[in-house]
Amino acid sequence: MKAVMKQKPGPGLEIVDAPIPEVGPHDVLIKVIKNSICGTDVHIYTWDEWSASRIKPPIIFGHEFVGEVVEIGKEVKSVNPGDYVSAETHIACGHCYLCRTGNSHICVNVRILGVDVNGAFAEYVKVPEGNVWKTDRTIPPEVATLQEPFGNAVYSTLVEDITARTVAVFGGGPIGLMSVAVAKAGGASRIFLIEPNDFRLSLGNKMGADRLINPQKENPIDVILDETGGLGVDVVLEMSGAETAIQQMFKVIRNGGRISLLGIPHRKISIDLSENVIFKGLRIYGITGRKMFETWYQSTALLASGKVDLTPIITHQLKIDEIEKGMELLIKKEAAKIVMSF
User: Fold this and answer.
1) Do 183 and 224 belong together in one domain?
2) Is the pLDDT of residue 42 over 90?
3) Fewer beta carbons below 10 Å: N end or C end of the chain?
4) Are 331 and 265 members of one domain?
């Protein structure tokens, strides 16, 4: 099969001819219909500090996909050949304290598809039965391949009630834009999107943002406080990981507000906990992955019902042979979500 592989440490990738995975008794073999590029894949492609410490080549990377089941292991009961599926990419151990208390999304022994085990930038991918997600066939493949990152947006946004809340989303990358749409569908009263890249910011209106702020042209603190009567917003969704944005979010969140942190800073950040968190009475959630599988049910409901439309952020559809072009577009921030096919 054709596959995209990180064969050795260092920048770049190779398109190779790899063996089709062998199916174990609890495994499911899926023929990939569409896949999409995640920010994690860009890190692996550029071979940054995180990748160098985590990725052990050779490995097929990529983890966002949708496909059709072609083979199942002899012990598999819940999935059948022909099923239209995606997958939860965090492969939990199932026996640690967290897994046994309903928190498998933060399993201490987790392995990640396309990071720790061979992934989905291939014509076929092998996934444990318990990670397979049967997908509603009314969701087209180019959207269905986005379910995994969409789950991050759903979990971040809906970890608490969003109805009638004012919301500031820092970061207009794909998940930030998805979060805008989820907040809109959830009944948020006013949504601010803060993003310095005009191309990505321009997609904010299509996803449901009420006010677009380019922080290189306007001061987000001044704008948000002015437009909320000096109170600040009820909810901040921090999707950028940028130190400046993180410092600004504490200035625009009202006392007693809620913050969801999904963006990952590139270095340690100093925060005044007394003034910014304790005295403000904030609730802060660190978000990783998706609730398994509560978030998946929410995500499917939002997409299948049409309450959320992700098509505006699919800015490019490429062939897998053009994956390096896709990587470069994302590095230059000239794309939002890139969907690929074979």
Assistant:
1) yes
2) yes
3) C
4) no
